[in-house]
Amino acid sequence: MDPRQKEFDAALRKLTPVFQRQLAAKDVRHDLYGRDQLTWNEYERIGVARTDGEAADELMKALRRRDSRVLDILVECLAEQQEANADLIHKIRNFFPEKPRPTPPPTNDPEPVTTYDDWPAPVATTPTSHPPIPPPPEEGTDVGRKDAYKMSSKPRGMALIINNRNFTCGMKERVGTNKDAENLFSLFNWLGLATMRKDNLTGKAITKEFEDLSRRDHSAYDCVVIALLTHGISGRLYSTDGDLVPIEELTKCFDGVNCPSLIGKPKVFIVQACRGGKFDYGVDSESTDGGDTAADDNEQVKELMEKQSSQFDRVIEKALDADETDGGGYSREALPTEADFVLAYATVPGYVSWRNSEYGSWFIKAFVDTMRELASKEHFMDILTEVNRKVAYDFQSRGRNKQIPAPVTMLTRKLYFRPGGR
Questions:
Q1: pLDDT digits over 51-87, tens only?
Q2: Who contacts 159 (Cβ-Cβ below 8 Å, separation ≥6)?
Q3: Which PROSITE patterns does this UniProt record tie to the protein (predicted)?
Q4: Which residues contact 186 (CB under 8 A, 6 or more apart)?
Q5: pLDDT tens by residue, 200-230
Q6: Calpha distance 397→408 (Å, rounded)
């Protein structure tokens, strides 16, 4: 037997009573499931355990079915709340020291191609820590109203992130998308969602993930959240093998016919992809309300956008490395008609969306930052309005291109995620 595996087995025996006393198994299961360290059945058994001790026992059974790397991953999960879990992490490392990592050889890879005037400051700086969860709202605020969706289950619901970076069909690599996926994964866990991330999926694999998730029983949960990060055109998304997957087909998986356990519950789709080939060159915020000059200027901008649009494929290949688009061609868009859906699109129909090679896409960056700031006190549509404002005012490419997100809502109540159990 591998010496490391022997050390792992011995550590688990010693850690069993420690985990029964100190480990919040029902909380850490979300992170372990999201990192593919628990099966769905193991995740459920931990969740339905009657006591914390029984939950810890179920978690230990699952850990024993894994190899030694699972304890390192568990420590990573606990380290997200380092202060609260410091003693537990110390005990795990006392019984199971971290495996020394070899020093990587020096490389001559260039620094990421980006310029800081492409990315707004200070809003767009990468946060090193997240703001604390604000205190619970006082009685009488919107959060306590009867016209809000129920949002108290633990976990709040299931979340899926589909992150396509590398394409086998000749499309450009989506540099920076992994940063989006990492930020969304952390955000969703903070919101109390059981999160799974899938990278570089073919068309068939995307459809299968949606069908599998829609067939699960969501009766015990209050929502579902799905993020799609890929190239796109109007109404359709590109898979890594070049298939075009209609967004309408994906949302239909969760309508009242195909997923009855989500009837009356919010179904949130976050779509980071282009919806056409047009570029938004912006307008002067101090321009007049009318007059020939303004009309002439707008007509010139319109003609220029149409010209750029017709040459989209050629322009995209020459796009800047720092700020890239997630684009394709054109198609008529269809929207789902079922209630309780909200689709948060990165851009309006017909236009490209932008992505920074170092910090990720403008839209996801603004979305994550704004959710961290406001999710504890504002409802989701107000948050998306603030995301619109940030993207519109705070972001601009080196070519002075602009972008405006375009949320589409079929919600029937106010949606509060209430992180931290509120």
A1: 888 888 898 888 888 887 888 888 888 876 656 677 7
A2: 188, 193, 194, 195, 196, 224, 225, 226, 227
A3: CASPASE_CYS, CASPASE_HIS, CASPASE_P10, CASPASE_P20
A4: 80, 130
A5: 999 999 999 999 999 999 999 999 999 999 9
A6: 25
For 73, residues 6+ apart whose C-beta sits below 8 A from its C-beta are 32, 35, 37
**Stretch (H or E) spanning 384:** helix 380-394
Read off the pLDDT of residues 251-262 as tens digits, 9 standing for 90 and up: 999 999 899 999
- The DSSP-derived string for 85-116 is HHHHHHHHHHHSPPPPPPPPPP--PPPP---T
Is CATH 3.40.50.970 what the domain over 142-281+290-421 is classified as, yes or no?
no
CATH match of 3-95 with 1.10.533: yes
User: Which amino acid is located at 77 in the chain?
Assistant: C
Distance CA 43, CA 62 (A): 9
Tokens of 120: 């707004």
| Residues 22 and 87 sit within 8 Å (Cβ to Cβ) | yes
Please, which residues have CB within 8 angstroms of residue 278's CB and are 6 or more apart in sequence?
Answer: 305, 306, 308, 309, 350, 351, 352
In whole angstroms, what is the distance from residue 360 CA to residue 354 CA?
A: 9
Cα separations in angstroms, 56 against 21, 36, 66, 76, 220: 9, 18, 16, 18, 21
Task: Kindly state the DSSP code that residue 421 receives in the 8-state scheme.
Answer: G
Contact (CB, 8 A) for 358 and 261: no
What residue segments make up the domains of the chain, in order of their start?
A: 3-95, 142-281+290-421
pTM for the whole structure: 0.60
Residues near 299 by beta carbon (within 8 Å), at least 6 away in sequence: none
Which DSSP symbol is given to 226? E
Q: Go through the chain and tell me how many residues it has.
A: 422
Question: Which residues are the active-site residues?
Answer: 231, 274
